[in-house]
Amino acid sequence: MALIESDQVDILVSDLQMPGMDGLELAAWARDVAPAMPIIIMSGSSIFGNCAQRGDFSFVPKADLPDALQPALEQAVSQLERSRRRSGTAPKSEEQDEPISKAKA
């Protein structure tokens, strides 16, 4: 949470069920701290996907990993890049901040 508060997280990927705080609580808190940050919630329950259609975050069913995670991450990167362009905080060059879809592992 300290990393999100210090603006060191670009995309939040969280499980729905965690000890102490669930993914929805974390997403709500993160949305207050970093409103433009894309959020991806993973869950083993497919029923949860119906709730995730609100648009606050992307939902990835664990049964579909890793296939469903890649497009969700690509969408999150696109959302992040659009947000940065609108706010004027986009990187000056591709060398400074290479998109995750092009980054080397």
What's a quick, concise take on this entry?
This protein has four helices and three strands, in the order αβαβαβα.
Outline = globular
Protein structure class? alpha/beta
Instruction: Please summarize the sheet with the most strands.
Output: 3 strands, parallel
Describe the strand arrangement of the main beta sheet, using strand numbers. 1-2-3
CATH fold node name: Rossmann fold
Count of alpha and pi helical runs: 4
CATH architecture: 3-Layer(aba) Sandwich
The SSE order reads HEHEHEH
CATH class: Alpha Beta
**In whole angstroms, how far apart are the ends?**
25 Å
Description of the structure:
The protein is of the alpha/beta class and 105 residues long. The chain has one domain: Rossmann fold (3-Layer(aba) Sandwich). It is built from four helices and three strands. The protein has helices spanning 2-5, 23-33, 48-51, 69-87, and strands at residues 12-15, 39-43, 58-61. The protein has a three-stranded parallel β-sheet with strand order 1-2-3, with helices on both faces. The chain starts with a helix and ends in an 18-residue tail after the last helix. The mean pLDDT is 79.
Write the layout of secondary structure elements.
Elements: H1 2-5, E1 12-15, H2 23-33, E2 39-43, H3 48-51, E3 58-61, H4 69-87
Parallel strand pairs: 1-2, 2-3
Keywords:
105 residues; alpha/beta; Rossmann fold; 4 helices; 36% helix
